[in-house]
Specification:
The complex is a heterodimer of chains A (about 110) and B (about 110).
Chain A lengths: L3 E4 L2 E4 L5 E7 L5 E8 L3 E10 L2 E4 L7 E6 L2 E6 L8 E8 L7 E2 L3 E5 L1
Parallel strand pairs in A: 2-11
Antiparallel strand pairs in A: 1-3, 3-8, 4-5, 4-9, 5-6, 7-8, 9-10, 9-11
Chain B lengths: L2 E5 L2 E5 L4 E8 L5 E7 L5 E7 L5 E3 L5 E5 L4 E6 L8 E8 L7 E2 L3 E6 L1
Parallel strand pairs in B: 2-11
Antiparallel strand pairs in B: 1-3, 3-8, 4-5, 4-9, 6-7, 7-8, 9-10, 9-11
Classes of the chains: A mainly beta (about 110), B mainly beta (about 110).
Chain lengths: ~110, ~110
C-alpha cells in the first residue's frame, strides 16, 4: 500500500463549488504539505503543517484553506472554486527535523 | 529569499548520450539540495540529496549530482541516457529542517531512440 494517499485522484467541478481534497499518510511523519503544480511553474507551496496544532501559509494560500484532523490526515479545501485553480495538487510529508519530503500521487482538479 | 533556477525547461538527448540537467540556487548559507523525478501521471520521487559531507552524491537509476559551492550549482548527470529516463526533473533547496523545500520550475527530459 502507498505511504501517502490522496483522494480523489481526479475531480471536475464547477465554478463556485466547494471542494475538499484529502491526504492520508502511514509514514508516521509529523509534517505535511500541500503544493500545486502548473505547467512551466513547477511546484508552489499552498499550506504546510508541522503538527496537528500548527498550520502555516505558503506562497499561494489565497483561495485555499486546510485542516489537520490528525497526525495522519491533512485536507485542502477550495471554498469557492475558480477556473484558475485548475491544476495538479500534491500532498507531501516529512519527518520532523528531516529535509526530504515524500509525495502522494496527486489529484488532478479541473474547474469549469 | 531562497530560490532555485533550472536552466532549460526542456532537454532532449539521444539514447546512450550524456544527460546534464542544470540547477543553480541562491544562498549565503549552506543549503540542502535535492533532485526529484516525476514520471508521467505519477507523484514526485526523490532521486538524490545533498545535506553534508561528500559533494558528489549518487542517486537511484545511475544519476549523480555534484554540489559546487563556488558556483552555487547542483547539476544532475547520467553518463548514458535510457528511454525510461524520460520524465520531468525538479531541483529543490532548503536551508534548515524547519523550512519547506523550494522547487525550481522543472526540466522535462526527452530521450530519443
Amino acid at each position: 500500500d502507498a505511504d501517502v494517499t490522496q483522494t480523489p485522484r481526479n475531480r471536475i467541478t464547477k465554478t463556485g463549488k466547494r471542494i475538499m481534497l484529502e491526504c492520508s499518510q502511514t509514514k508516521g511523519h509529523d509534517r505535511m504539505y500541500w503544493y500545486r503544480q502548473d505547467p512551466g511553474l513547477g511546484l508552489r507551496l499552498i499550506y504546510y503543517s508541522f503538527d496537528v496544532k500548527d498550520i502555516n501559509k505558503g506562497e499561494i494560500s489565497d483561495g485555499y484553506s486546510v485542516s489537520r484532523q490528525a497526525q495522519a490526515k491533512f485536507s485542502l479545501s477550495l471554498e469557492s472554486a475558480i477556473p484558475n485553480q485548475t491544476a495538479l495538487y500534491f500532498c507531501a510529508t516529512a519527518a520532523g527535523g528531516a529535509y526530504e519530503q515524500y509525495f502522494g500521487p496527486g489529484t488532478r482538479l479541473t474547474v469549469t | 529569499a531562497q530560490s532555485v533556477t533550472q536552466l532549460g525547461s526542456h532537454v532532449s538527448v539521444s539514447e546512450g548520450a550524456l544527460v546534464l540537467l542544470r540547477c543553480n540556487y541562491s544562498s549565503s548559507v549552506p543549503p540542502y539540495l535535492f533532485w526529484y523525478v516525476q514520471y508521467p501521471n505519477q507523484g514526485l520521487q526523490l532521486l538524490l540529496k545533498y545535506t553534508t559531507g561528500a559533494t558528489l552524491v549518487k542517486g537511484i537509476n545511475g544519476f549523480e549530482a555534484e554540489f559546487k559551492k563556488s558556483e552555487t550549482s547542483f547539476h544532475l548527470t547520467k553518463p548514458s541516457a535510457h528511454m525510461s529516463d524520460a520524465a520531468e526533473y525538479f531541483c529543490a533547496v532548503s536551508y534548515s529542517g524547519n523550512t519547506p523545500l523550494v522547487f525550481g520550475k522543472g526540466t522535462r527530459l526527452s530521450v530519443i531512440a
